[in-house]
């Protein structure tokens, strides 16, 4: 078995060793491998030597083995919510399939065509780009019509296709009226606070409060002085 520049002798002294131990056997001039995995994909070389009239004769043959693997269940990334008019990308990926898997997307149980030309004759205007090799579904921009339940399917020519769990994406329009109303309410609250402070200053509320606090401080200081004198005379 040859992998890269490394040569591995898997049959030695009439028995298989290493990864092929107990799962491979010689049948006539070939090798029967049981329970193959993707790790068995490699180039295999068979070398033969035999005595001849001219001396020792040799020969070799090289064979490539590709172990095919069906796809596994892909992982999907679908946003729960999105704003209409923005760019949204859905992703789908699996890494087990050999050959590499291709992908298709479904919305509400119906497959999305690769060519969006089909959608030009429909009342629902959809603008998306589907990459069957990377598994990405790009909406540029996304609209309310794109709201629905999505799932992705990975497939190759080996085994059956596998899909990810269904996920719902909700697309809503930007509520401009609600944003304007919120801004107006915040502005009114700030204006009311400013008017309240202005009214309090005009009535002299802060000046009266500061004056009463100063008088209170002076009274405490006087009382403290009296107590100190009294204590001092008591000690004498």
Automatic annotation (TrEMBL):
InterPro entries the record matches: Ig-like_dom (IPR007110), Ig-like_dom_sf (IPR036179), Ig-like_fold (IPR013783), Ig_sub (IPR003599), Ig_sub2 (IPR003598), JAM2 (IPR042625)
Top-level lineage group: Eukaryota
GO annotation terms (biological process): leukocyte cell-cell adhesion
Topology class, membrane: Single-pass type I membrane protein
Principal place of residence: other
Compartment list: Cell junction, Tight junction; Cell membrane
Keywords noted in UniProt: Cell junction, Cell membrane, Disulfide bond, Immunoglobulin domain, Membrane, Signal, Tight junction, Transmembrane, Transmembrane helix
Transmembrane portions of the chain: 176-200
Keyword Transmembrane belongs to the record: yes
Domain Ig-like: 71-177
Signal peptide extent: none
Pfam family, one: Ig_3
Gene Ontology CC terms: bicellular tight junction; cell surface; plasma membrane; protein complex involved in cell adhesion
The keyword Transmembrane helix is assigned to this record: yes
SUPFAM superfamilies: Immunoglobulin
Homology family: Belongs to the immunoglobulin superfamily.
Name by which UniProt lists this protein: Junctional adhesion molecule B
Organism field: Thamnophis sirtalis
Native organism taxonomy: Eukaryota, Metazoa, Chordata, Craniata, Vertebrata
Gene: JAM2
């Amino acid at each position: 078995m040859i992998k890269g520049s490394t040569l591995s002798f898997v049959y030695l002294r009439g028995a298989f060793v290493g990864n092929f131990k107990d799962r491979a056997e010689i049948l006539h001039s070939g090798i029967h491998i049981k329970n193959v995995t993707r790790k068995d994909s490699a180039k295999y070389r068979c070398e033969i030597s035999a005595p001849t009239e001219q001396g020792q004769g040799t020969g070799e043959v090289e064979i490539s083995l590709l172990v095919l693997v069906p796809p596994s269940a892909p992982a999907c990334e679908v946003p729960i919510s999105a704003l209409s008019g923005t760019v949204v990308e859905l992703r789908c990926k699996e890494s087990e399939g050999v050959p590499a898997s291709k992908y298709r997307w479904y919305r509400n149980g119906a497959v999305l065509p690769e060519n969006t030309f089909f959608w030009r004759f429909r009342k629902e205007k959809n603008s998306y780009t589907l990459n069957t090799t990377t598994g990405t579904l790009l909406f540029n921009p996304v609209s309310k019509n794109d709201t629905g339940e999505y799932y992705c399917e990975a497939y190759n020519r080996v085994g059956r296709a596998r899909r990810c769990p269904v996920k719902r994406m909700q697309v809503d329009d930007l509520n401009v009226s609600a944003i304007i109303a919120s801004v107006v309410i915040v502005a009114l609250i700030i204006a009311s606070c400013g008017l309240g402070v202005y009214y309090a200053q005009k009535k002299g509320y802060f000046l009266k409060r500061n004056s009463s606090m100063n008088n209170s401080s002076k009274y405490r200081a006087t009382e403290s002085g009296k107590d100190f004198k009294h204590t001092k005379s008591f000690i004498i």
